[in-house]
Amino acid sequence: MTPSPFRWADVLLTGSLASLASTAVLAWLARREGTSPLAPVNAPSHWVHDEPALAQDGASVRYTVTGAAIHHACSVFWAAVFERWAPSRASGRASLGAVVRDALALTAIAAWVDFRLMPRRFTPGFERRLSGRSLAWGYTAFAAGLVAGDRLNRHARRAAPGTRARGVVRPEGGRNAARGAGVAAGGRARETTA
């Protein structure tokens, strides 16, 4: 089996889904914990705006847009790592279980990097606004976004014209078979596609 090709369109879709899923879950959990749903969205903007960003609960271009952009960029980065090096990417037909395993493993690595390797200034900031349990759910949602992106990308590749789908004869074989049938019938062969 040939590995699935690395494509930036796949990375952007996967990273966007992971970003949206984790942002939605973190915002929902922030509200359940009694804080503003925008608090975890604003938090990553502390990379640019330092400590005041961690206290922001309202919507603003300065904190909300900046925080969302930073989180989204980081999500796309981790999606690129996932798309490039996850073992399940080596197969065009990886099982859902293999993709889930790889997404969870990559998410655990991302969390370790976020909270253990990064200097305090470059952590996500979520950890300063939410409980550890909520963080775990947010990172789980991130992994779910990676899985959803992988599944959608694989489906799109299978459905794309010129790709070989299961049970479909290759174009060369189909052409030769049609040609043979046409000659046997004494007429011109007509090709059909599934």
Give a written overview of the molecule.
63% of the residues lie in helices and 0% in strands. It is mainly alpha-helical. It has helices spanning 8-32, 39-42, 46-49, 61-85, 96-117, 132-159, 171-184. The two termini are 23 Å apart. It has two domains: 8-163, no CATH class; 168-194, no CATH class. The model is unreliable at 165-171 and 173-194 (pLDDT under 50). Helix 1 (8-32) packs across helix 4, helix 1 packs antiparallel against helix 6 and helix 5 (96-117) packs across helix 6. The chain contains seven helices and no strands.
Features:
63% helix; 7 helices; 0% strand; mainly alpha; 2 domains; 194 residues; elongated
What's the end-to-end separation, in Å? 23 Å
User: What's the story with the biggest beta sheet?
Assistant: none
How much β-strand is present in the residues?
under 5%
> Which blocks of ≥5 consecutive residues have pLDDT under 50?
165-171, 173-194
| Total strand segments | 0
> Tell me, what's the shape?
elongated
Biased composition (Low complexity): 159-182
Organism: Caldimonas aquatica
Protein name: DUF1440 domain-containing protein
Region (Disordered): 157-194
